[in-house]
């Protein structure tokens, strides 16, 4: 294992609170009486679905919340959490379906708690957010129209954040953050997690192409703040009323702003396309529908469009490599960590086999059909 990877392992420790400990924290820090608590899946933080017992004098209190316990590395950076909280609140005020943040008994939005591990003390930042209704996109059959709406949502979110101001906003320039799409070359120090096989060969090829064809274009991309993780579990949907018998879904929640950073509009488009491909039986078709929705708000330039194929491949590589690496650290969380890998390697190979021109033809022709009214 590379030294950089070892350093990250030592620095980042996922929380391991029991349900009883988490329940006690909700009551002691936020002042809510817990009636039920259950763990939620998570990558490197720890989340709990919390049911609150309402009292007569607290009728306005939420009945369901999510307790989010940050990993040790994130917990050392309260300014980053502060900016994330500001973004969540800003977007909710702008009409986006984001959660509301609950205040602690001391009227703060976060609380730092320490836990004795027996071999030392670890500190974790706590937040309590209202629970958003709906089910993850991953759990429903996703239609072209919903893909279009998700693409549109991604672009509107980034566009809206152009007017977000915060004195500590510069902290989102996370130059060494492994999940920022411009940092694909940093994957090289995690490749040993893949072993020696065809998958590794593809990733190495993508990294070299990224250095040659994307890095040289970065100065031509339009910069913005990216959510950076609009995956099929971070977008919630609910059925909406429709005159037809077919189920029509609308977005009811946007979750997890932990990977937010400065990036580019085309990054958000690529990330969204990649994650929407994961659950699709026709993955290559997905990109055109998402792109059409995205470009209804932020049309991509020719140079941004030319990078889209490789950026989608690059995000596949980020997700697949880091999942394999994280499984070595947290084998108990393997089922959640390997969600992308179930179809990801196959779809990445499929994109490579088709080639950039063929995939772009599908995407761009599908997107063009929306302009002609075929899908609307």
Please specify the SSE layout and strand pairing:
Elements (H helix, E strand, L loop, with lengths): L2 H9 L7 H12 L2 E8 L5 E8 L10 E6 L2 H4 L2 H16 L17 E6 L4 E10 L4 E2 L7 H17 L37 H16 L9 E4 L8 E6 L7 E7 L6 E4 H14 L4 H13 L6 H28 L4 H4 L3 H14 L1 H16 L5
Antiparallel strand pairs: 1-2, 2-3, 3-5, 4-5, 6-8, 7-10, 8-9
Helix pairs in contact: 5-7, 5-8, 6-9, 7-8, 7-9, 8-12, 9-11
GO cellular component, one term: cytoplasm
Keywords: Cytoplasm, Kinase, Transferase
EC number: 2.7.1.81
Describe this structure in words.
The chain is α+β, with helices and mostly antiparallel strands. It folds into 2 domains: 13-130, Phosphorylase Kinase, domain 1 (2-Layer Sandwich), CATH 3.30.200.20; 135-371, Aminoglycoside phosphotransferase (APH), C-terminal lobe (Aminoglycoside 3'-phosphotransferase, Chain: A, domain 2, Alpha-Beta Complex). The protein has helices spanning 3-11, 19-30, 72-75, 78-93, 144-160, 198-213, 265-278, 283-295, 302-329, 334-337, 341-354, 356-371; strands spanning 33-40, 46-53, 64-69, 111-116, 121-130, 135-136, 223-226, 235-240, 248-254, 261-264. The chain has a 5-stranded antiparallel beta sheet. A hairpin with a 7-residue loop joins β8 and β9 (248-254). The radius of gyration is 21 Å and the shape is globular. One of its GO terms (molecular function) is hydroxylysine kinase activity. It comes from Octodon degus.
Describe this protein with a few key phrases.
Aminoglycoside 3'-phosphotransferase, Chain: A, domain 2; 5-stranded antiparallel beta sheet; 376 residues; disordered N terminus; 12 helices; 16% strand; globular; 2 domains
């Amino acid at each position: 294992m590379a030294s950089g990877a070892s350093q990250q392992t030592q620095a980042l420790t996922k929380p391991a609170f029991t349900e009883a400990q988490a329940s006690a924290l909700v009551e002691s820090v936020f002042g809510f009486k817990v009636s039920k608590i259950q763990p939620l899946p998570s990558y490197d933080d720890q989340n709990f679905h919390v049911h609150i017992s309402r009292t007569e004098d607290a009728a306005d209190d939420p009945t369901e919340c999510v307790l989010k316990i940050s990993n040790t590395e994130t917990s050392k950076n309260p300014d980053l959490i502060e900016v994330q909280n500001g973004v969540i609140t800003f977007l909710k005020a702008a009409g986006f379906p984001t959660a509301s943040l609950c205040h602690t008994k001391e009227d703060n939005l976060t609380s730092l708690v320490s836990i004795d591990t027996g071999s030392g003390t670890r500190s974790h930042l706590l937040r309590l957010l209202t629970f958003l209704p709906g089910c993850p996109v991953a759990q429903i059959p996703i239609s072209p129209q919903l893909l279009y709406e998700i693409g549109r949502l991604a672009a509107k979110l980034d566009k809206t954040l152009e007017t977000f101001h915060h004195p500590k906003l510069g902290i989102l320039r996370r130059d060494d953050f492994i999940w920022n799409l411009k940092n694909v070359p940093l994957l090289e120090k995690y490749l040993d997690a893949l072993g020696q096989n065809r998958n590794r060969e593809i990733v190495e090829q993508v990294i070299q192409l990224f250095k040659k064809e994307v890095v040289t274009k970065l100065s031509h991309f339009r910069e913005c703040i990216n959510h950076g993780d609009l995956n099929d579990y971070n977008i919630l949907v609910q059925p909406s009323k429709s005159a037809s018998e077919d189920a029509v879904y609308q977005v009811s929640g946007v979750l997890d702003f932990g990977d937010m950073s400065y990036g580019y509009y085309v990054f958000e488009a690529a990330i969204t396309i990649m994650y929407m491909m994961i659950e699709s039986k026709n993955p290559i078709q997905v990109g055109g529908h998402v792109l059409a929705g995205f470009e209804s708000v932020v049309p991509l330039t020719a140079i941004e469009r030319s990078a889209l194929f490789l950026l989608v491949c690059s995000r596949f590589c980020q997700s697949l490599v880091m999942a394999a690496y994280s499984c070595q650290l947290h084998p108990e969380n393997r089922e959640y960590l390997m969600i992308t890998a179930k179809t990801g390697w196959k779809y990445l190979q499929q994109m490579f086999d088709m080639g950039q021109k063929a995939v772009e033809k599908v995407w761009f022709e599908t997107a063009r059909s929306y302009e002609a009214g075929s899908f609307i």
